[in-house]
Amino acid sequence: MIADIGVAVGQVLVVGMGAPLLVGVLRTLKARLVGRRGPSPWQPYADLRKLLGKEVVVSTTTSWVFRATPYVLVATTLVTALIVPVSSARPPLAFAGNIILLVYLFMLGTFFLALAGLDAGSAFGGMGSSRGVAVAALAEPTIIVAVFALALRADTIDLGLVVERFGQEPWLAANPAHLLAFAAFFIVMLAETGRLPVDNPATHLELTMIHEAMVLEYSGRYLALVEWAGAMKLFLFMSLLANLFVPWGLTGPAGPGAVLLGLLALAAKLAVLTGAVAVLETTVAKLRLFRVPELLAGSFALAFLSLMAVILFR
Amino acid sequence: MFRQLRTAIRTGIVTEPAPQGGEIERIGERLASEIARLFGRSLAIRQVDAGSCNGCELEIAGLTAPHYDLERFGVHFVASPRHADCLLVTGPVTRNMAEALRRTWQATPDPKFVIAVGDCGRDGGIFRGSYAVVGGVSDVVPVDAVIPGCPPSPATLLAGILEAIGRPR
Amino acid sequence: MDRLAYGLAALIGIAATAFGSYGMRGDVGTLRVAWLVPLGGLELTLDPLGGFFLALIGFAAVPASIYAMGSSPGERRDRFAYLVFVLSMCLVPLAANTMTFAITWELMSLASYFLVLHDRESKPSIYAGWVYAVMTHAGLACLLAGMLLLGAWTGSPRFEDWRAAAPALSGTARNAVFVLLGLGFAGKAGVIPLHVWLPLAHPAAPSHVSALMSGVMIKLGVYGLLRVSLDWLGAGPAWWGVAILVAGAASSLIGVLYALVDHDLKRLLAFHSIENIGIILLGVGSAVLYHGAGLPAAALLGLAAALYHTVNHAAFKALLFLGAGAVVHATGTRNMEELGGLIKRMPWTAACFLVGSAAIAALPPLNGFVSEWLTFVALFQNTHLAAVGLNIVFILGIASLALTGGLAMACFVKAFGITFLALPRSDAAARANEAPVPMRLAMLTLAASCVALGLGPTLVIPVLGAVAASVLGQAPPATVGDWLTLRVSGGYASLSTLAIAIALGAALLVPFAALPLVRAARRTRAYETWGCGRIIQTSRMEYTATAFANPFKRVFDFFYRPTKHLDIEFHPESRFFVERIEYENPARSIFHDWLYRPALDLLRVGARAAGALQSGSANLYLAYILAALLLMLVLA
Fold this sequence. Notes:
The structure holds three protein chains of three kinds. Chain B is α/β, with parallel strands linked by helices.
């Protein structure tokens, strides 16, 4: 019991403390790829620290929904951190949820964030909300169908069990259905976490913002919470992508050695994924807003093909 | 895509070393050490164009380019004053922009400071005394530091901003 | 004194819930009064499925009646019609032969027709009532045809006898009956393309009636479909299940797509009812297919998911309609573009509406999520079916359910955000007052039930599983996990909304504990919204509902086929100055253009041609009578 609580706290700490580092490494890599020295990978920690020291300016048109949203975002990502297999194949709250719950927990966060965007009563916030929920809604069929492809092969939708069963399969990486599902999931990850080519996290032009426009009104500790939740969401999506499709290092016998191995494996996989995202973000331009549904439809087609491949070659 | 990557790898990092000895005029009563303590490692700047000729903006735009690279010091530009710690104001404040500048300053959460850029920001520059101009930035919002020049080069700007937050030391 | 009728209806609701619960537990009973009704007599039977729907009706009728006590009493005609409506709805699931069913069904339709028409002066109300009357009676015609045919072929008008005799009928006979009865019940349920009356009738009726119509009346269509596909006719060919599944997928997607571009608060909710009926039918269709393929566990799962969603939808749709009614009561308008900022004037209503919105958007840990999760898991079981064609149908169903879930969330961000948040867009919204106590009580009860149904699936599933098992003719399911966790099909999936809720609650407190630890600043200052330094902020600068729905209108424009009307009035002195701009971007309904208008035109042409028979000459009419008499003498 104590060990379980320890594992849960540990996993939350890994996700919570590691997420800003992930974002920092991504920013540094992107800078290096365009010939700049770029910020230090530890910069997001300094940013969060500074934000915590600032006052909060709250708009007079807003209501309690605006003030509650940062806490809801943090809460949903922390609970998700307990369901995703991060460094082991037995996440703490595995009994409570599975992939479908994951998708809808993220939607809970998006729901409140979109409401907060509308709450301020500015056109920017409304625009961000409208586009944000459109992208989230259109990305959903892809996730569910890709998840179904995985669940079909593993005969379960429990995340930990999927990782375990895939870990026992030797030629997983060569399976075309697996690769197609990975590609579909990768595109959805870019859409849901607001990275290029769907949304530019570093833009200053409000008319090009999707996620950033919803947080324009936040300041101080609220902004720190929202940024932290965003970093954790990226960390969790990447961990999910890494561990579901490349389950190495997670399926050893239990014990402190296994935890260390799991963390090292996670770090290695996240490093590779971060590098891939950095290269992609540096070389690809942001899509026009009304081209994004075409991209998401393409990812749905990939997920559908993956599923067909699994069904036909059962 | 690969051609871009090849060029990037071949060119390498072109960032120049940080300029030393920034000259700024401090006019605020705020202690330099206090600003340095709060924002020495992370600063968010919101640039406000209060009627400038855009000469200063062109120089400021160079700050995020690879040669000057403001980001390596933990300084970055933000879109909303709610996210900002520092207002970088250019231009003599025209009558049309005076109220907007005041509201931007009010919308920025404390603790914050203001840097006025260029001769126009200091006291109106070559537009001083015009019917359309209020004066320098300090006539509208409290200013903590001024970076003089018309326009100040990116190196001067960089040195000035770093001096304001107490880096590099 | 004039609220007595509503109190009586609430008592009937409580009695219905009690009776229904007895029925669900398996305490069956029959009441027969042979002389009351011709052609078979009055016969009422309580069995688990009927008991479930009876309890459902009672569950929704009580808050609706309490709510009605808080609104204006209305005319005596309306109160009487309401009482008849509730009573007849309670009797429909109990009906055990054709005549009883037809009478109770028609009473229900007539009572609701009068309630839809309660605002007798307005043209939209009259049109809504007329379309409703036509569609419901067309459905009744199909139902009567099907039931009378089945009665003729099996030799008895009693449902009990159909269960025994129907499997012996020929395949074409059963298919024909399935089609007729299916069409009739689908029309009542609001399945695409028979849905046109729903978005007209539900907004026109007063809110407590809309809550009942959306919450339980259309579920009686589902009740009928369940009886037809699983009970009366025995196991059928696979295309029955496929038809229901495809109808469900189409309804869910099309319902939510129409809701996205609608800015009338109640019509939006009506379209969402179509969407949720679609989701229920996905569960029913999968149950029918699994039952026919001999997969009892999967069929049980599908049916339990459908029944759960039926209850959940009754809960949150009633809540949403009552909330919308409170808004209309306070502001006098249903148009979202004129509302806004109501969360500050009507905090209780806003909080209840938020719970309802989160529930219908299937957000954990509320009830909508649980039933959608169950539906997904049921649909995922299709891997056990061998036919690849069926697998593809299921995959399309899964994809449509996923898309529907996302779009429903988007639509309710719009509905809640535009109606309740930011600044009021009209004077009426700026002067709104909180709803009276009975309305608030009703809404709070339903909100609490949404939360309870979401946190307690481990208590609800065994009950629904028993009902589903009795319909499918199986033994009730073994344990489905413990009090905390719901476990499905041995390790395939598990869910614990209670654990998630507790985890969310704890996680919400983490920032509260952590922020003081990192010595975060606690100052808060109020200031205006950031508007790039503009001088004033009015409600004209907010996002509108039309703008919010615009990305969807553009992405799905092949479906909406929107038309644009732009009317610019220039200043009389100069074309450089504009006085007024009017912009409209309505979506066109493909069903109106491609189905109903051609059908109605055809009907009109046919009627005009048939009008030639009415020449007006009495001699010709006598000749008709003679000919008909001779024909019948020959045929007999």
